Structure formats: structure tokens, C-alpha cells
Amino acid sequence: MKSLKSFKMNFRKKDPFHDGGRCGVRMKQLPFMGILCIGMVFVVYRTMIYQHHQTQIDARMDPFDISREIHLSSWQLRNLPRGIVQAASDLELRPLWSHGNSNSKKFQLDSSGAEVEYPTGRYLLAMPVGIKQKHNVHAIVQKFLPENFTIMLFHYDGKLDGWNDLAWSAHALHVVAHNQTKWWFAKRFLHPNIVSLYDYIFLWDEDLGVRNFHPGRYLRIVRSAGLEISQPALHPNSTEIHHRITIRARTKKFHRRVWDMRGSTKCTNSSRGPPCTGFVEGMAPVFSRSAWFCTWHLLQNDLVHGWGMDIKLGYCAQGDRTKKVGVVDSEYIFHMGIQTLGGGDHSGKKASSSEEHSNKNSKHGSSFDVRMEIRRQSTRELEIFKERWNKAVEEDKNWFDPFTMDSVVVGDDHERRRLKHRHKVRA
Ligand SMILES: *[C@@H]1O[C@H](CO)[C@@H](O)[C@H](O)[C@H]1NC(C)=O
Ligand SMILES: *[C@@H]1O[C@H](CO)[C@@H](O)[C@H](O)[C@H]1NC(C)=O
Ligand SMILES: *[C@@H]1O[C@H](CO)[C@@H](O)[C@H](O)[C@H]1NC(C)=O
Ligand SMILES: *[C@@H]1O[C@H](CO)[C@@H](O)[C@H](O)[C@H]1NC(C)=O
Questions:
Q1: What's the confidence (pLDDT) of residue 8?
Q2: In the Cβ-directed half-sphere of 19, how many Cα atoms lie within 13 Å?
Q3: Does residue 307 contact residue 182 with C-beta atoms inside 8 Å?
Q4: Nearest ligand to the C-alpha of residue 235?
Q5: Percent of the chain with pLDDT over 90
Q6: Counting atoms of ligand 1 from 1, which one is nearest the CA of 121?
Q7: What start-end ranges are recorded for coiled-coil regions in this protein (predicted)?
Q8: Ligand 1 pocket, residue 119 CB under 6 Å
Q9: Rounded-to-integer distance, Cα 37 and Cα 45, Å
């Protein structure tokens, strides 16, 4: 139903442009009509800007029109006629041949293996995966496939062959890079110009239980609430709950803030920023197209653990982060907190201790703890990120903090030290 609706909307959206084309011809004969048409097109254009969540890949008001304009004016493209330039792409598999006129058609296989035409609303699920989590990843993907998601897996353990027996595997995209993190993959393979087709991007960890999660319902909530950055709430039984705002509120559909007067955490109605409001955590973020465009630019190429990013994500919320960032309660997940490499924040995995490693790391006694090393590296990266942010703020004379009213208070005990570091950034 939903896709049908947006399909109709897209049709309606297209019409003015067809009209605009016709007007363009008439304009030559009738200057008055021409001005009218230009005005009309402008109004539609402005409307389109606000409807940035609607896919319109071939229309001129594509959100990446800006970058296209930059490209067009660039020296390198000067010999190409404007109309041939395509600044965006997607991750869809395409048939080697097609029957009849399928110029604008996109294909996907449904569960029975039949080819179906793509709906207008398209979404991307991108996950770092290791073969040890195959069972769980399979469960997640099966939930997403019927909802017209494109699946992209980042294999950080290189064990690609182990997935071949799953029917959907041949229709997913697989990227292999040993020991790389979710953010490393995302920076390299989810460039905004490549994923501009997708209304929403789910950049999830592999250790999430989705028994109580339905992607379609989730998207309906996120859309109607206008959440540009979101995450499903975590069931209270989840391990590694770092922030109260991520915990599921049983009676709500979604929430944008948390109230908490206990301990060192003071989240009140006057709280204006993380972790009380305007905040999601790194394990299951969902981005709108525009939010992802911003987030990708915020991602640092070399800081692969992504620490410190979550606290800044609100700057990519395309407006007031207390309104456009939220946690969906009615569709929730279990965070299993399994130690995997691919996950950002809580990443790390135990390696079998070897002589060589233990010698190199006498500080940690006899066994080399990969997890500990990753944690230390993450902390280092966090410091670097903070420095970069502060330097950028200092150097950009035109920048002003849209969220100057922030009151940042620190949460759970085991996260306190880390957060303390993080929050210094804001000071
Ligand atoms: C997925 O796409 C198919 C084919 O276009 C459509 O019939 C179906 O309703 C879509 N499902 C959802 C959940 O959007
Ligand atoms: C990846 O990490 C594991 C464990 O830390 C290590 O044993 C392996 O050699 C690494 N692989 C590569 C290709 O670096
Ligand atoms: C959550 O944990 C409680 C206490 O351990 C248990 O009784 C309950 O069944 C758990 N709920 C789920 C959904 O796992
Ligand atoms: C916070 O705001 C809510 C909703 O506006 C209101 O019901 C509540 O009384 C307020 N609480 C405080 C402590 O001001």
C-alpha cells in the first residue's frame, strides 16, 4: 500500500515536469506563458526540496544535483554535453539482457525467484558480517528481503564461500576486506552518490535479534514522525546497553528523549542534546538519504572505529536534532553484544593467544587481548576526532553551533569515563 502511494506521488511529481517541458516549447512563442511556467516549475522545485525523502533519481531535483552542478562546472567534464553526465549510481544488480522496453525498470527477485519490478521506495541494509554470525544474519536478511531491501554484506573475516548455500546470497552484494570495521566499509562503499537511490539506509551490526522487528512498520513510523536518524529501541534484556535513551519504552511507538534524574545522569525537559535527546547509538542506526549524505562526510577516512561519531550525529539530522532523531519502541531489537570485529563501538574479539603476541604485549600479562587493543585504539581515535572537530570549529569562522543550548550529562557507570572524554569536545 505504502509503495503504491509513493508510486502515485512520484507520478504526480513527474507531471509538472512533463508540463514544464511542453511549456518550454510554448515559451518561445508566448513570453507571458513562459514566465508563468518558470514560476510554476520553481514552486514545484521548492516543494521537491522539502520532499527530499522521495526518490527521484533521474529528475533534476535529485539531492545530488548540487554535486552534479559542481561537476558540471568543473574543468574535467568540460567536453561532455550536460545531459550525458550521471553523477549518481546505485547498488542494484542488473540483468545482462532484458525483454522489451525496460529502460527505467529495476529488477529484484522475490522469494520464489521470480523477477519483479522494483517499487519506488527502495532501501538498503548494509551489515558487516562474519561467518560465525551466519545464522543470525540469515534471520535478519529474511525479515528485510520481502520489504524490498537491497542487501549488502561486508565480510570482515574473508569467509565468503560459507554463505553460498543461502538462496538470497547470490542476490546480495558482498564486499570482502579482512579485519575492517563497519565504518571503514561504509566510508568506502556507501558513498552518497552511489546510494542516493535508497530512501533509508540501515547500517547495522550483525548481532541483533529481530524477532520483534518489522522493517516495513519501522519505516512507516520513521516516515510519519519525520525521523532523519533513528534506531530501533533495545529490549531491556539486551546486553551492553550504554544509554538509557536506547531502551525500549513499552507503551510508546517511538521516543525522542529520555527523562532520568538518577545518579549522575540528569535528563530533564530542558536537556537539549545527547545522551538525553537527539541521540542514537552506533549498533543499529538508520539514516534518511539526506542524513546519510551528511554522515558520510562526517566519517573520517582513517578513524575506522567511529568513536565520538554518535555524539555528533545530531549535526546531520537536517534540522533540530531533538525532533529529527528518535528511537522506535514498537519495533525493537535485542542487542546480543557478541564480540565481533565488524561492529563499531563495542567491537573487538578475542584472539587465540600466541607466543608472538604475548611477547609483544607484556603489559597485558600472558594473553594478547585483541579486544583490549581495539578498545585502546578506539580511545586514541576518539581523541583525534575531538581534536579535529575542535580545530575545524576554530578555523571555520562562518560556522556557528546550531545546538548551543546543549546540556550534556553523563550516563551509565561503565560508560562514564568514555563519555567524559567525549563530552570534553563540547566544552
Ligand atoms: C515490494 O515490491 C513489490 C513489487 O513492486 C510490491 O508488490 C510490494 O508491495 C513491495 N513490498 C513492500 C513492503 O513495499
Ligand atoms: C585479522 O585478525 C585476526 C585476529 O586478530 C588475525 O589472526 C588475522 O591474521 C588478521 N587477518 C589479516 C588478513 O590481517
Ligand atoms: C528478560 O529477562 C527476564 C529476567 O531475566 C526474564 O524473566 C524474561 O523472560 C526475559 N525476557 C525476554 C523477552 O527474554
Ligand atoms: C516535561 O514535559 C512534559 C511534556 O511537556 C510534561 O508533562 C512534564 O510535566 C514536564 N516535566 C517537568 C519536570 O517539567
A1: 40
A2: 16
A3: no
A4: 3
A5: 51
A6: 14
A7: none
A8: yes
A9: 12
- 102, 118, 148, 200: residue to mutate for ligand 1 pocket, most atoms within 8 A of CB: 148
CA terminus-to-terminus distance, the chain: 48
**266 against 291, higher pLDDT:** 291
**What is the residue with the minimal CA distance to atom 12 of ligand 2?**
178
CA distance 195 to 203: 12
- Provide long-range contacts, Cβ within 8 A and 24+ apart, for 56-63: 56/10, 56/13, 57/88, 57/90, 57/196, 57/197, 58/104, 59/13, 59/14, 59/17, 60/17, 62/88, 62/196, 63/196, 63/289, 63/290, 63/293
Residue extents of the structural domains in the chain: 2-64, 122-427
Nearest CA to ligand 2 atom 10: 179
Q: What pTM value is reported for the model?
A: 0.73
Looking at residue 179, its amino acid is N
- Check pLDDT > 50 for residue 152: yes
Confidence (pLDDT) at 145: 96
Q: What is the pLDDT of residue 414?
A: 35
User: Ligand 2 centre and the CA of 344: distance in Å?
Assistant: 17
Atom of ligand 1 nearest to the CA of 148: 1
Region of poorest pLDDT, from 11-15, 172-176, 185-189, 310-314 = 11-15
Tell me which ligand sits closest to the C-alpha of residue 333.
3
**DSSP label at residue 269:** T
Ligand 1 and 150: CB distance under 6 A = no
Task: Output the CA 214–ligand 2 centroid distance in Å.
Answer: 35
Residues at CB less than 6 angstroms from ligand 2: 178-179, 351, 370
What's the CA gap between 227 and 93, in Å, rounded?
Answer: 29
CATH architecture of 122-427: Alpha-Beta Complex (3.90)
What gap in Å lies between CA 290 and CA 64, rounded to an integer? 10
- Between the CA of 383 and the centroid of ligand 2 the distance, in Å, is 25
State the average pLDDT over residues 412-419.
38
* C-alpha cell of residue 403: 545546538
pLDDT in tens, 74-126: 788 888 898 898 888 899 999 998 876 554 444 444 444 444 443 468 999 99
Which neighbouring-strand residues pair with 153? 127, 174
